[in-house]
Amino acid sequence: MYMELEYSSIKEVHILAGQQKKVIDGLYLKNMFISGANNLENNKELVNSLNVFPVPDGDTGTNMSLTMNSAIKEINNAKDDNVFTIAELAANGSLMGARGNSGVILSQILRGFAKALKKEMQINSKTLANALMEGSKTAYKAVMRPTEGTILTVIRESAEHGIKIADKTTDLSCFLEEVVNQANRTLDKTPDMLPVLKQANVVDAGGKGLVNIFNGMLFYLNTNRIIQVTDKTTQIETIDEITKSETEDIEFGYCTEFFIKGKSMNHEFFKNSITSMGDSLIVVGDENLIKVHIHTNSPGLVLEKAIELGRLSSIKIDNMREQHRETLIHDEDKLSCKKKIGIVAVAVGSGITSIFKDLGADEVIEGGQTMNPSTEDILSSINKVNADDIIILPNNGNIILAAKQVKYLTSKNILVAQTKTIPQGVAAIMAVDQDRTLSENELKIQHAINDVKTGLITYAVRNSNFNGVDIEEGNIIGLIENEIESVGSDITEVVNKAMDLMVDEDSSLITLYYGDEVDPKEAEILFKDIKEKYCDCDVELHFGGQQLYYYIISVE
């Protein structure tokens, strides 16, 4: 069983290869990407375990692996194997499949990587160094406040080292080996850059994921062998296609999607030229890349028009009339009345999902910690909502960045609310006013978010120490605004400790959402005790059905 390559095995493989490679082509790059993705897949649980909090929510490895697998899905559909096509398809696929902050940052690294390889037919040490550097720059630009000691530092210092040595070797194996060594050196330093990593005695999870990708790519470069996934059951499941049908009587039967790649293209001119060919038209992009979505009865004519502008890729044509009848009826009911503002929320647990639907969410995406939805998942839900203005409630800090990418993939007006917890999401959706603009709602939502406190009750999966507090595996942990504030051996005890810290004289409403592992009778007893203790507050108890967290607590 192949696992992650270490320094020694990299050296041995290089010696065994014994043959210099001065350039590689697109097919070679494709296989390197696949090998890198598979190596990350094999090691994703190790990466997950590095998430700094000792709670069962580590998902960096999973998010990065799903993002890479989405990239591989795209490059496997490549019509040609030139370097730029492979790199750009990897970038496009990773963007659509990006999950969590780490996945979005990875997609931006691939975006910059592809940008630097534009028009390249082969890759040598210099072009690879430039591509890595452009990947680093693009990733930094995508993050509002870049934090050193993360995957950003690992890619930047690796790229800078690559630029420094690119003139000294024409052997790509030697070059990439040096880049990987630098990546490992930087990764080892991340605990010194981020105190939270040092306290947990771990390196940065995102940086570790990137090193796994690099190691897999280097393995193929040295051996001409793709690392195989050791557990086939862990491979990414195919993302459900966006439901295209809107009514039982479909006027335009083929949902047609594709990219146009060219030079100096005018996407508005193209949009006007195909408007009469169908409906549900979306044409977005820039002068070099245009994404097209249209419902039409003549997909061939649309493609003929598009090919006048440039090269077509990622063509998908779906016959919407063959969609399942139950789905048609479901969508028809939802689309019967156009709303001024649509709401898409991310929720974890069947109970919390129902609550968001009852409060007016048009689409609720099942997801949250450890199962972040991708950019494509969010885009799919947006496309189902019959509204031009959409508010997205991510309800998890690790989903906000992926949600923001949707703005570039749709013609709808998107507001991504900065909701990082379920209680913030509930407060936000209750603040939405259908008679106000998105900008006005943004202010109302932010005020609502500022007025709510969030507590999470979960358990430790490892021994650790945070801020001088010893935590043993199996301990019950109380987090307030994502900071560990109480530790104990009893759930009720930790809940009460957290409540004492959260409730003050200004508090008026306490809401508890109990998880799928909590006995409803025990939840009811806790509810009555809290209601009696905080008699000046309104106290509510709801079944949340969430995993990982025994209770989610909201105090307003």
Explain how this protein is built.
The protein is an alpha/beta fold and 556 residues long. It folds into 4 domains: 7-234, DhaL domain (Serine Threonine Protein Phosphatase 5, Tetratricopeptide repeat, Alpha Horseshoe); 254-321, Alpha-Beta Plaits (2-Layer Sandwich); 335-450, Rossmann fold, CATH 3.40.50.510; 453-555, 2-Layer Sandwich (Hypothetical Protein Tm841, Chain: A,domain 3). It is built from 21 helices and 16 strands. It has helices spanning 7-17, 26-42, 44-48, 60-75, 83-97, 100-116, 125-142, 151-165, 172-193, 195-200, 205-223, 267-274, 299-307, 325-334, 350-358, 375-384, 400-405, 422-431, 438-450, 491-502, 520-533; strands spanning 254-261, 278-285, 289-296, 311-319, 341-347, 363-366, 389-393, 413-416, 453-459, 464-466, 469-471, 476-480, 483-488, 509-514, 538-543, 551-555. The strands form 4 sheets. It has a 6-stranded mixed beta sheet with strand order 13-12-9-16-14-15, sandwiched between helices. Strands 2-3-1-4 form a 4-stranded antiparallel beta sheet, with helices on one face. It has a 4-stranded parallel beta sheet with strand order 6-5-7-8, with helices on both faces. A hairpin with a 2-residue loop joins strand 12 and strand 13 (483-488). Helix 4 runs parallel beside helix 6 (100-116). The protein is globular, with a radius of gyration of 25 Å.
